[in-house]
């Protein structure tokens, strides 16, 4: 009876109703196709691609999968489920899958586990507005891959209207929307995707339950660190909030390299909060013998150009004592004494010509409230922790945009003028060599002039030898 009733209904439908039904079916089909096309980017899973005989293509596929698609199809499928529909096994799997993502590294383990259980996956094509300036916040966004442009409405007196001005870019690992959610204020900027971008989205209610207390504690630590420096006294609350988003705090153990020699982030300015660190110069020298004396020249490696390097002539030998300068940025010694532990035994660099030696020279000491990597000369240098060190890292480009009173350029000039250059380091090296040579010659001369005294007497000869030799007593 049901089938007959259905057929009867179809029979009594008017032509207009039939056309409307067909049109709705066509629209649903088109919407489904468009949705598949829009999400085709993240639906690609490189695990399903079969490797072939081309080594180059295989390497490209594997590195692309590792770099661009951190999340697999299974991860994204579970993240698209409603939170209520996720099982305990799903939550445990998500924690293992996304707990190590760059955007989650700053949070404790228990917070990571909770975040993995309540976040959703989201994908947007280039040009999509994620949130707009002035709107109230409804979610927090973690960037998994892609890039987002942050823009702000600024009044242009020439055009006599507000125009969008880019204020920064965010990449993988960045977090969008903390300020508005934490302080319950409208969005201060507009976020727009510039590439295919994947996000993990955390709703406002889940943020208040899981993440708000942790973010407040991290912000309090950054605020306390900013209060240690006079550079930030004139910043308003909005600037401080933005700094709390971009800044990060790192800790280093003694003898750990903080910056330089391929370690650290060259795009960040380092502010020392605790401990002491030293700047070490990599001094390259060549030597030759003339009239029985060893002479040294400084060697300047040229990277990415000619193999031959400019060699500057200088006089003679060794590293010396000198005085320590005090400053607001820490101690700036013109190299401590030769018997201190600042001198590491030199060695020949394996990639340099055989007659080139590499010496590690301490240039200066940096104490609390010092800063470095602001754009000063950092060629062939590294910063190493002397004690346990804590540093506040702030992006350099962002600081330069807030260069009130040209403060950062003045700090850069101060560091360049007070920290010895490579040539000054080499001159101290020669003075030290001369001192060692003079010390050795003086000791040898004193030992040569000293007359040897023989305190042995006849009574030191054993009695039986004296009797056999008939020595008169």
From TrEMBL:
Residues 103-211 form the Cyclic nucleotide-binding domain. Signal peptide: none annotated. InterPro entries: cNMP-bd_dom, cNMP-bd_dom_sf, RmlC-like_jellyroll. Transmembrane segments: none annotated. CDD domains: CAP_ED. It holds the Pfam family cNMP_binding. This is Cyclic nucleotide-binding domain-containing protein. It comes from Photinus pyralis.
